[in-house]
UniProtKB/TrEMBL annotation:
<dbReference type="Pfam" id="PF14959">
    <property type="entry name" value="GSAP-16"/>
</dbReference>
<dbReference type="InterPro" id="IPR028010">
    <property type="entry name" value="GSAP_C_dom"/>
</dbReference>
<dbReference type="GO" id="GO:1902004">
    <property type="term" value="P:positive regulation of amyloid-beta formation"/>
</dbReference>
<feature type="signal peptide">
    <location>
        <begin position="1"/>
        <end position="30"/>
    </location>
</feature>
<dbReference type="InterPro" id="IPR026172">
    <property type="entry name" value="GSAP_fam"/>
</dbReference>
<keyword id="KW-0732">Signal</keyword>
<feature type="domain" description="Gamma-secretase-activating protein C-terminal">
    <location>
        <begin position="625"/>
        <end position="732"/>
    </location>
</feature>
<protein>
    <submittedName>
        <fullName>Gamma-secretase activating protein</fullName>
    </submittedName>
</protein>
<dbReference type="GO" id="GO:0005802">
    <property type="term" value="C:trans-Golgi network"/>
</dbReference>
C-alpha cells in the first residue's frame, strides 16, 4: 500500500513540517496531490499497473489512506473533489492528447470530460461536461462537525470563464447512496466573464476578478452552509489584465500544466487573516533584469505598497517569479535563492515591522528552486513534486536571527515578530529580555525596552473582541526613517472595497470594522501619553500645596485598584521590595493613566459597557507594571543578584552594576513613554546605586533626578551604616539633599552631631519663618532672669522660646526637637570646633 509519512525538519526562519508523499509499491510511480479538501483530506492520484489511474485520499488527522476510484485507463486528472459525506466524487480529466486525438481519428470525442461518480459503493457515473475546454470541480463543504447531509453542492469552473454551482441530492437505498435526481441537475451561475479566480477552501469563499476597461474589479462570493451564495465584496484594483486565459488559484493542482505558460500568466493571490486583513498580492513585470517587483494591496488599510527589490546576483536558470504564502500574521513573498519577505498584514505601515531576509536566512531547504503555491494558510505545495509542506516561523531560528542581526531594521522586525506573532510565550519572552539586557546599546533608532513593553502589552490586551487593537499602541515608534537595503517601497492610497453583508460574524465583521476605522477615524486613534504627561507634571508640582481634592482622591483610588488587581493575579514570588511601599509620584501616574485611558476607550468604544472598560483599563495598567516586574525578575535571575543589595557596607558586584544600568534604561524608557513604574523601583535603583557607584557619581545621578531618594532606602542607609568617615560623608551628602518632608521623617535615624546641627538649623529656620508669617508685632521681651553666658545664643534662644510659647511647633512629630535641643546642639558644635569636651 502506498505509505504517507510526515517528518519534521527545522529550517532557518521557516520551519517546515513536511508531508512527503512517497510510493513504496513495487511498480512505483509518483503520487500527485490534486486537491486538499476542507476537512484536511488530501486527494491524490497515481498510475497503477496496466496504466490504470487511481484516485485516493489521505486523512491528515488519522493518517489513513482510502482508495476512492480507479479508471482503467491512463488519464491525466485535471481536477478532483470528494463531498463531505464521501458519497460522491467529481473528476475532470483530459481524455487524449491533441496528437492522439488526431491520429486516432477521435475528432468527435471531446478533449476533456467531467464526471460525477457515486462511490458508496462505486455505482453510477454521470457526465457533467464533455467539452474541449478544461474544467475544474470543487465540492462545497459545510461548517465542520455538521451532521451528514443528503445535499451536496458542487462548483464547476470552466476555462470558458464562467463558474456554476450544481445542487445534488442523494438518497440512501439498500446499503448504497445514489443521486436522487435522474434528470438534469439543478444549477446556477455564480460568476461570468472572469479572468482570474481563487478558491478559499477553509472559509468557503470564491474570489474572482472581472476586467473593466483598463481596471479590474475584485469580487468575492461567500458560500454559507445552509444558504445560497452571496456576493459580499467589490473592490477596484488598478491592475490591467489583458490575459485571454483564465487563471485559477487553488482549484486543485494540475501538476502537468505547462510551467512556461503558468509563469507568464497573472501571478496574483488574495490572502485573508483572522484579524480581518485582506491583501491582494501580485507580481509585476520589470524591465530591468536584476530587479523584481511585487505589489501588495492592503485592502483593509486603504493603500497598496509596491516593492522593488534589486537582486544581488542572478543566474539565468533561476526563477524570476515571486511566490506568495499566507502565514496569517504575515504574507510571505518568496523568491527561492534570493529573498524571503515576510510582510506584516496587521501593521503594514512601517517597513521595519516586516522581515526582509536574504542569503542563508532566506533559504528554505525543501523549497529551493521550485514553483510553489499556498493552498491553505501556512501550507505550501511544491507544484513539480506534488508534495505539500506545512510552513511556520520557527521561534528558535527567529531568536538566532535577532541575536545575529546587524541592523536596527532587522532587530525591530525580529523583536516585533517574536512578541506579536508568537504571543506571550514564556520562554521566548525570557530570551528576549536577556537579549535586550545584553544589547541595550546596540539599538540606535529605537528603544528596545519601550518596544518590548508596548508590544507585549498590546499582545496581552488585544484580543479578538472590542477593537482594542485600533485604540492601544502597538509600537513606541511613531515614524521610522530607516531603510531596508536593496528594497524600495512606494505607497499609494487606494479606494476602499465595498462590503455588502448583514449580521455577518467573524472575518467580514472584522474587515468591516477595519474599513470603518480607515474611513472615519482620524489618523491617530492609538492612545498617546501627551496629555498624561502634562497632567502628571501639573499635579506633581501642586503636591506641595497639599490640597487633597476629590479629583486627586479618585486618582489615588484608581492606583489602589490597579495594585490590588495585580495582587489578585500575581501569586508568584515578588522581587523584594517591589510593590511593598508607597510611591506618591508613581501612584499618581498610575491613577492618572487609568483615568485617561478610560476616557480614551469610552470615547471610541461606546458600545462596550463602562464596567468592561474599567476592567480593561485596570488590566492594562496592571499588566504594564507586571511587565516591568518581569524584566527586573529576569535580569535579577540572569545576573544572580541576591536580596542583600541593601547591605550598604559592601560594594556591589559586576552583575549588580549591569543591573543598575539596565534599571537606569528602564527608567529612561518609562520616562520617555510617561509610563508608571512599580512602587519600590526607585528604592531598588538607589540601593544598587549606593552599592555600585563612587560617591561623586552617585550624587551626580541624584542631582540629575535619575536616582530618587526614597524613604525606605534612605532610612536603611542612615540606620545601617556605621559612622566611619567615608560613611559619614555619604550620609551627610544624602541628608543634605533630602526634600523637606522626607528629611523630617528620616533624619532622626542618624544619631550624629552633624545631623543634629542640621536639624537645629532647620528648626530655627522654621520657627523664624513662622514668626515672619505671623507678622508678630510685639517686640521680643528681654529675659534678664537667664544668666548671661553666651550672648548671641541666649538672645536667639529667648526669641525662639518665645515663639515656641505661642504654640508654634514646626516639628510636631519629633518631641525632642525644641529650643533646648537647638541650644545644646549649638553648644556641642561650638565646643567641637574649639576642640573642647562637652559634658
Ligand atoms: C497585454 O498585452 C500586450 C500585447 O498583447 C502584452 O505585451 C502585455 O505584456 C500584456 N500585459 C499583460 C499584463 O499581460
Ligand atoms: C532545481 O534544483 C535541482 C537540483 O537542486 C535541479 O535538478 C532542478 O533541475 C532544478 N529545477 C529547476 C526548475 O531549476
Ligand atoms: C547580544 O548581541 C550579541 C551580538 O549582537 C549576541 O552575540 C548576543 O548573543 C546577544 N545576547 C543575547 C542574550 O541574546
Ligand atoms: C497602487 O495604487 C495606486 C492608486 O490606486 C495605483 O495608481 C497604482 O498603480 C497601484 N500600484 C500597483 C502596482 O498596482
Amino acid at each position: 500500500m502506498h505509505k504517507l509519512y510526515s517528518e519534521p525538519a527545522q529550517m532557518k526562519i521557516l520551519c517546515l513540517f513536511i508531508l512527503i508523499i512517497s510510493d513504496t509499491s513495487e511498480n512505483s510511480s509518483a503520487l500527485y496531490v490534486v486537491n486538499v479538501e476542507r476537512n484536511g483530506k488530501i486527494i491524490y492520484t497515481w498510475k497503477g499497473n496496466q496504466r490504470n489511474t487511481h484516485i485516493g485520499s489521505y486523512d491528515l488527522q488519522t493518517k489513513q489512506n482510502e482508495h476512492l476510484y480507479m479508471f482503467e485507463r491512463d488519464l491525466r486528472i485535471i481536477s478532483c473533489s470528494v463531498n463531505n459525506e464521501r458519497t460522491l466524487l467529481a473528476v475532470s480529466f483530459r481524455q487524449y492528447t491533441e496528437e492522439a486525438r488526431v491520429s486516432r481519428l477521435l475528432q468527435s470525442v471531446s478533449k476533456y470530460l467531467t464526471l460525477l461518480i457515486e462511490i458508496q459503493p462505486v455505482n453510477n457515473v454521470r457526465v457533467l461536461k464533455a467539452v474541449d475546454s478544461c474544467v475544474r470541480v470543487q465540492f462545497l463543504y459545510p461548517v465542520e462537525d455538521r451532521k451528514p447531509s443528503t445535499e451536496s453542492r458542487l462548483l464547476l469552473v470552466s476555462e470558458d470563464k464562467y463558474i456554476e454551482q450544481f445542487d445534488i441530492r442523494v438518497v440512501a437505498e439498500e446499503h448504497k447512496v445514489v443521486i436522487q435526481n435522474s434528470g438534469q441537475l439543478p444549477r446556477a451561475r455564480v460568476a461570468d466573464d472572469l479572468i482570474w479566480a481563487q478558491w478559499d477552501m477553509m472559509e468557503q469563499r470564491l474570489f474572482y476578478i472581472v476586467p473593466k476597461e483598463s481596471r479590474s474589479t475584485l469580487k468575492c462570493v461567500q458560500f454559507y452552509p445552509d444558504e445560497n451564495f452571496n456576493s459580499i465584496l467589490e473592490s477596484h484594483l488598478d491592475i490591467s489584465v489583458n490575459d485571454t486565459q483564465l487563471k485559477l488559484v487553488n482549484f486543485g493542482y494540475d501538476y502537468c500544466q505547462d510551467q512556461d505558460v503558468a509563469s507568464k500568466s497573472l501571478n496574483l493571490q488574495v490572502f485573508t487573516s483572522k484579524a480581518g486583513g485582506l491583501c491582494v498580492c501580485y507580481s509585476l513585470a520589470s524591465d530591468i533584469p536584476d530587479e523584481i517587483m511585487y505589489s501588495i494591496y492592503f485592502l483593509h488599510k486603504g493603500y497598496n505598497k509596491t516593492f522593488t527589490v534589486s537582486l544581488e546576483r542572478t543566474e539565468s536558470h533561476q526563477l524570476k517569479e515571486v511566490a506568495f504564502m499566507n502565514l496569517d500574521y504575515y504574507v510571505a513573498a518568496y523568491l527561492p535563492g534570493q529573498f524571503l519577505h515576510l510582510l506584516n498584514i496587521q501593521h503594514p505601515d512601517l517597513p521595519c515591522y516586516s522581515l526582509f531576509l536574504t542569503g542563508e536566512d532566506a533559504r528554505i531547504d525543501m523549497l529551493q528552486n521550485c514553483s510553489i503555491q499556498s493552498p491553505l494558510m501556512s501550507t505550501v505545495l511544491d507544484c513539480h513534486l506534488g508534495s505539500m509542506y506545512a510552513v511556520s516561523i520557527s521561534d528558535s531560528a527567529l531568536l538566532q536571527f535577532l541575536q545575529n542581526s546587524k541592523r536596527d531594521s532587522e532587530r525591530l522586525a525580529a523583536l516585533h515578530c517574536a512578541l506579536l506573532y508568537f504571543r506571550h510565550t514564556e520562554d521566548l519572552e525570557m530570551q528576549i529580555i536577556w537579549w535586550i539586557s545584553d544589547n541595550l546599546s546596540t539599538c540606535h533608532s529605537f528603544d528596545p525596552i519601550q518596544e518590548f513593553i508596548i508590544a507585549s502589552l498590546y499582545c496581552r490586551m488585544c484580543p479578538e473582541t472590542h477593537d482594542l487593537d485600533k485604540l492601544l499602541p502597538y509600537t513606541s515608534l511613531l515614524d521610522w526613517i530607516g531603510i531596508i537595503p536593496g528594497v524600495t517601497c512606494a505607497t499609494d492610497i487606494i479606494s476602499l472595497p465595498v462590503l455588502e453583508f448583514q449580521n455577518s460574524k467573524g472575518f467580514w465583521e472584522k474587515l468591516n470594522s477595519n474599513l470603518e476605522s480607515v474611513k472615519y477615524a482620524e489618523p491617530h486613534l492609538h492612545y498617546h501619553s501627551n496629555v498624561l504627561r502634562r497632567e502628571w507634571r501639573k499635579l506633581s508640582e501642586e503636591r506641595e500645596e497639599r490640597t487633597t481634592t476629590v479629583y486627586l482622591r479618585n486618582i489615588f483610588e484608581n492606583a489602589k485598584k490597579v495594585l490590588s488587581h495585580l495582587d489578585t493575579w500575581d501569586s508568584e514570588e515578588r522581587l523584594v521590595p517591589l510593590f511593598q511601599e508607597e510611591d506618591y509620584e508613581q501612584q499618581l501616574l498610575m491613577g492618572l493613566m487609568v483615568a485617561q485611558l478610560k476616557d480614551h476607550l469610552m470615547r471610541h468604544l461606546q458600545y462596550v459597557g463602562k464596567k468592561k472598560i474599567d476592567q480593561i483599563v485596570l488590566d492594562y495598567v496592571a499588566n504594564l507594571l507586571n511587565l516591568v516586574h518581569r524584566i527586573l525578575k529576569e535580569v535579577w535571575r540572569r545576573y544572580q543578584l541576591h536580596s542583600c543589595i541593601f547591605c550598604f557596607d559592601e560594594r556591589g558586584s559586576v552583575g549588580e552594576f549591569v543591573v543598575f544600568h539596565i534599571m537606569s534604561r528602564i527608567l529612561e524608557a518609562a520616562n520617555g513613554m510617561c509610563m508608571p513604574l512599580p512602587p519600590g523601583f526607585h528604592t531598588l535603583h538607589l540601593g544598587l546605586g549606593v552599592r555600585c557607584l563612587p560617591l561623586h557619581t552617585l550624587l551626580h545621578y541624584i542631582d540629575h533626578g535619575v536616582l530618587h531618594l526614597t524613604e525606605t532606602c534612605v532610612r536603611k542607609l542612615l540606620k545601617d551604616l556605621d559612622n566611619t568617615e567615608k560613611n559619614e560623608k555619604l550620609k551627610f551628602s544624602i541628608v543634605m539633599r533630602l526634600p523637606e518632608a522626607l528629611g523630617q521623617k528620616v533624619r532622626q535615624f542618624w544619631n550624629h552631631p552633624t545631623n543634629a546641627n542640621f536639624i537645629a538649623r532647620k528648626y530655627v529656620e522654621l520657627l523664624l519663618e513662622k514668626l515672619g508669617n505671623r507678622q508678630c508685632s510685639r517686640p521680643v521681651p528681654e529675659r534678664l532672669s537667664v544668666p548671661v553666658e553666651f550672648l548671641p545664643l541666649n538672645y536667639l534662644s529667648n526669641m525662639l522660646a518665645d515663639i515656641e510659647n505661642q504654640d508654634v511647633h514646626p516639628c510636631e512629630k519629633q518631641d525632642h526637637v525644641n529650643v533646648r535641643f537647638v541650644e545644646e546642639t549649638a553648644l556641642k558644635h561650638t565646643m567641637n570646633l574649639l576642640g573642647l569636651k562637652y559634658s
